[in-house]
Design a protein that fits this description.
Number of domains: 2
Strand order of the largest sheet: 8-7-6-9-10-11
Distance between the termini: 17 Å
CATH class of the largest domain: Alpha Beta
Shape: globular
CATH architecture of the largest domain: 3-Layer(aba) Sandwich
Order of helices and strands: EEEEEHHEHEHEHEHEHEHEHE
Oligomer: single chain
Number of strands: 13
Helix content: 25-40%
Radius of gyration: 19 Å
CATH superfamily of the largest domain: NAD(P)-binding Rossmann-like Domain
Length: 283
């Protein structure tokens, strides 16, 4: 059963889990790790892949992967359901790149699920954020916290991105696009800059001049499985009011094909939500 994002209530617990947890509203870290795997990089399994996921009324996950949702977030269940995959991926990328207050971060693919969280989380951490996205989505990204935006349709991204910083160079590029723009991403990084990626929607094969890497003393990070501190960090930002998940539409799970077609149109900002039927409504 697929589905990596969820929000729901604990209906039952297994041996060794506090029975008081029954009834808690929770979301879930979608990566599952063996207890002895300190980094979590060797043993990880993923919700909806190696384990049955959230395209159902019920699922079973390790208690340590569940996180109680604060009562005062002001967010809908549909909004919180965007956290596990998109929010977690963004948080993991920024932790790996060591983003902190004062950093200058360029976010590519900024209007997508991961990209919109990259903008918000980097801003919450105290960075200056420049977002690359279609011009029609700039207003939404500025509302989410971007300091400036660059039109993805422009032939040259580097010049307007650097101009937005007053010609200073970026300290971090958070890239989920890849493809032909990879070299341009590296060109805007200053010495000691960090490049982190978790996707390649424009193509996984890129051209790298190794002299750019070593002469600028750049650091590269590839992000997939979450660090053990990723989801706790994400939930802390949620509790601090630092997240406003962008939800474009909410559909029943039965309309998954329509949702996928809408996703491919790339006219949305953030996430498209699917809701399984209630138990009493299920066939």
């Amino acid at each position: 059963i697929q589905g990596a994002d969820l929000v729901g209530h604990i209906m039952a617990v297994g041996p060794g889990v506090d029975a008081a947890r029954v009834g808690q509203k929770v979301t879930c870290d979608p990566y599952f790790r063996d207890p002895g795997d300190e980094t979590g990089l060797e043993s990880n399994a993923f919700l909806g892949s190696e384990r049955d996921g959230s395209f159902a009324q019920f699922t079973v996950v390790p208690a340590e992967n569940t996180y109680q949702i604060p009562e005062d977030t002001g967010l809908s269940d549909e909004a919180i359901a965007t956290l596990p995959c998109s929010g977690g991926t963004a948080m993991n990328m920024l932790l790996m790149a060591g983003v902190k207050a004062g950093d200058r971060v360029l976010v590519t693919g900024a209007s997508g699920g991961v990209g919109s969280f990259l903008v918000q989380i980097a801003k919450h951490l105290g960075a200056v954020v420049v977002a690359v996205a279609s011009a029609s989505k700039h207003a939404a990204l500025l509302e989410l916290g971007a300091d400036a935006c660059v039109d993805r349709a422009a032939e040259d991204h580097a010049t307007p991105a650097l101009a937005a910083l007053g010609e200073a160079q970026f300290t971090v590029v958070a890239d989920v696009v890849g493809g032909d723009r990879f070299s341009e991403c590296l060109s805007v990084l200053g010495r000691g800059g960090r490049y982190v990626t978790a996707g390649a929607i424009a193509g996984p094969i890129v051209e790298l001049d190794l002299r750019t890497l070593y002469l600028k003393s750049l650091e590269f990070f590839g992000s997939s499985a979450y660090r053990r501190d990723t989801f706790p960090g994400l939930m802390q930002i949620l509790a601090e009011g630092g997240l406003k998940p962008a939800v474009t539409s909410v559909r029943p799970l039965s309309e998954i094909h329509e949702a996928q077609a809408a996703f491919l149109e790339k006219s949305h900002v953030g996430s498209l939500i699917l809701v399984p039927p209630k138990v009493e409504d299920a066939d």
